Amino acid sequence: MSDAEWKNRCGSEWGLLGAPMPDGLDWKSVYEAKPFGRNLLRNPSPFGLSKDIPLPEPDLPDEPDFGPPRFQPDEDFSGWTTNTEVLPYDRSGIPAGAVVCQLPQYSWFSLEQLVDLKAEGLWEELLDNFQPEIHIQDWYEESQLHDSIYQLQVKLLGADKSTVISEYTTSPTEDRSRYSRAWKEVSHVFCSYGPGVRYVHFLHKLKNMFLNGFYKTMFTNSTVVVRPRRWSQPHTAECEPWAVEKDTWGEPKKLNSCQIKNFQTEK
Predict the structure, then answer these.
(1) Which of 95, 115, 240, 253 is the most exposed place for a label (fewest CB within 10 A)?
(2) Rounded to an integer, what distance in angstroms lies between the CA atom of residue 32 and that of residue 59?
(3) Residue 75 DSSP code
(4) What is the value of pTM for the model shown?
(5) Are residues 15 and 132 located together in one domain of the fold?
(6) At 203, is the secondary structure helix, strand, or coil?
(7) Is the same domain home to 18 and 68?
């Protein structure tokens, strides 16, 4: 096919109504990159689990682990940049003079990725003028280890990889009044974020504990997906309602704000 035919194919299949599509791009390469509707994060489920499968109960050791404390899981986290922050012992609530044989030791295990939007097939004119929606989704387990076991920070960055154009953060507090062990969802949609975005920096932290054994908080199905807006609209502070009930990939959608739930991604 000619370059013009590849360009038309991109516009029609991805529903880029009103999007700038300059003639100078290699549209065959753009089409083959498939920048829309796929997860741009690598290794999104390193624990080998899925949000669609109930969490297994944790394995309890047959004997206490009195060896050196562990602070990081053993799984393969290739694609992620990881870091461990060991937290000081929490001695609050212990009466003066009380003898404590052992205290739990907590740590934050952080994982981050930097997504290069242009390298994934998007182009500057689209990002600056059309500003496609950038969907974020993550799932973490109710590990019951602490009132705060999960944090998420996602930044849209400029070409220098440091200028923050838009940002979303959350640090939920867990309800431990009753036992519950399930996947918990966190999601957000960036829209009308302004020109200059070239990178997405995705960082989440999960709290682990060591007390006669290592106990971790797991995550799964971490997702960064770019989706085109469904029709020409002014850039407003919030996402406008979607004009159709099914998106380009045939999935039902009824969204009306920058906070959404349960969006599906192509694997």
Answers:
(1) 95
(2) 44
(3) S
(4) 0.84
(5) no
(6) strand
(7) no
Q: How far is CA 131 from the centre of its chain?
A: 19
**Is residue 248 included in any domain, yes or no?**
no
User: Whole domain around residue 197: which residue ranges?
Assistant: 36-57+64-89+102-227
For 236, the token pair is 């407003």
Paired tokens of 145: 């280890």
Please name which of 148, 141, 147, 146 lies closest in space to residue 217, comparing C-alpha atoms.
141
Give per-residue pLDDT as tens, 57-73: 877 777 777 778 889 99
* Helical residues (DSSP H) of 124-192, grouped into ranges: 124-125
Tokens 């399930």 correspond to what residue?
A: 182
Q: Are residues 49 and 14 in the same domain?
A: no
Q: How far apart are CA 97 and CA 95, in angstroms?
A: 6
Pairing of strands 81-86, 164-170: unpaired
For 80-137, write each residue's pLDDT tens digit. 999 999 999 888 878 888 888 888 999 999 999 999 999 999 999 999 999 999 999 9
The pLDDT mean for the chain works out to: 86
User: For 15-39, how does the pLDDT look when each residue is reduced to its tens digit (9 = 90+)?
Assistant: 888 899 999 899 999 999 999 999 9
Euclidean distance between CA atoms 160 and 34, whole angstroms: 25
Beta bridge partners of 166: 156
Q: Do residue 43 and residue 14 come from a single domain?
A: no
